[in-house]
């Protein structure tokens, strides 16, 4: 399978749904009622500072593009390996996040002396996000 035909054969409805779910997960994950308070405390932010979206337009745009990029990548890998199904997709997403993202966040934050709580919150978000993306792509496969 070449890259161009692989990308042409993706289910872009699945990609759109998974991208939107990824974005909503981020909003929910870092909401004060879920992990937002612990996340803000680890960063030394007050609730007002954490709730302020002033100057974060670029971060929200990058978040959306990031979700789309991760979704297309997982969809492409699943298509290239003929993988389908919720559990297979969720497993693939969780493995990718654990191997690449969580480990990277772990050592970046370790050297930056970032609180362990922040590392765990951000790493767990990545694992859950990619597992959800894989599960959604798997449903549509």
End-to-end Cα distance? 17 Å
The helix-and-strand class reads mainly alpha
Overall helicity: over 70%
Counted by DSSP, the helix tally is 7
Q: Radius of gyration, rounded?
A: 16 Å
Shape: elongated
Return the domain count: 1
The count of strands amounts to 0
- Mean of the pLDDT scores? 95
Oligomer: single chain
The low-confidence runs, each spanning 5 or more residues with pLDDT under 50, are none
Taken in chain order, the helices and strands follow as: HHHHHHH
Give the amount of beta strand, in percent: under 5%
Largest sheet: none
Task: Describe the structure in your own words.
The chain is mainly alpha-helical and 141 residues long. It has one domain. It has 7 helices and no strands. Helix 2 runs antiparallel to helix 7, helix 3 runs antiparallel to helix 7 and helix 5 packs across helix 7. The longest helix is centred in the C-terminal third of the chain and has 26 residues. It starts with a helix and ends with a helix. The mean pLDDT is 95.
